[in-house]
Amino acid sequence: MKKGIFISLEGPEGAGKTSVLEALIPQLKEMGCQIVTTREPGGVAISEKIREVILDRGHTAMDAKTELLLYIASRRQHLAEKVLPALEKGTWVLQDRFIDSSVAYQGYGRGLAVDEVEWLNRFATDGLKPDLTLYFDIDVKEGLARIARNKDREVNRLDLEGLDLHERVRQGYLTILEKEPERVIKIDASQPLDQVVADSLEAIRERFAEEK
Predict the structure, then answer these.
(1) Average pLDDT, the chain
(2) pLDDT at 212
(3) Annotation-wise, does 30 bind a ligand?
(4) Is 181 assigned to a binding site?
(5) Residue 15 has pLDDT above 70, yes or no
């Protein structure tokens, strides 16, 4: 049975999720939280291999359903091998992307049936959802411009997609936010990083004030 706290970080490309996650770690540890951080796709050896296939810039011929199924396979292995054991020990898990990414990118972005994407998510996770999802919202053009300016960031196959797909992805996230406002908290990612981190920490503290 799950005992820990599961927090996912979501957002369109260039929203700064990874930077926020790294900044949150020391602050949450100061609160006495035992933390595991991880990412999707990836997080464990098998899932990292799948990540290489998904994000390879040479795999432009990849079919949308193939892409979705690879993400789902990566998710299941990662969950079974790393996330669930950590939660069962009472650890806080902070994860860069989870089920909402598949809905936003492959559902709304690629045009696959959202209800089928959601079914596959439930199948892979046995219905597990994060206790809290921080959604980092940013204008698509601004997010892509950040990526272009950041020479150290990995440029993957999804970064090469057209603006229309990224716009659909953002709208998909906003739709998820409307459907599940109790789980998903919107953070303005266009602000300076320090403020985004502060807003994120406040949202976590408000939700889990009794936890430690």
Answers:
(1) 94
(2) 53
(3) no
(4) no
(5) yes
